[in-house]
Automatic annotation (TrEMBL):
It is found in: Cytoplasm, Nucleoid. This is Nucleoid-associated protein EHT87_28630. Keywords: Cytoplasm, DNA-binding. Homodimer. Coiled coil: none annotated. One of its GO terms (cellular component) is cytosol. InterPro entries: YbaB-like_sf (IPR036894), YbaB/EbfC (IPR004401).
Amino acid sequence: MFNMMDMFGKVKEFQARLKDAQASLNTITESGESGAGMVRVTVNGLKQVVRLTIDPDLIRPDDREMLQDLVVAATNKALENVEPKIKDHLQKATEGLLPNIPGFDLGNLMS
């Protein structure tokens, strides 16, 4: 039989674990590169850029526009790469807490 109090307890535990998992997203990092590795960007699970490395050969005033494009491309790749890690981290933190209820999708909480 379905016990509503047990369900509320699990929801409360789910919320606590999700909050803890979200707080630790800064420990997840992923990188992206462009220009055959000449520009490399590292982001964390909070989608913040934490490191930018540019090959010294690219730092020339006449190539400024190309460098800007490479930084944008590397940043976007890093953000794309970190997304699955974020989702996996949050899912693992809350795994097994709530039953699989048809029509009750918590997927939007994981992104």
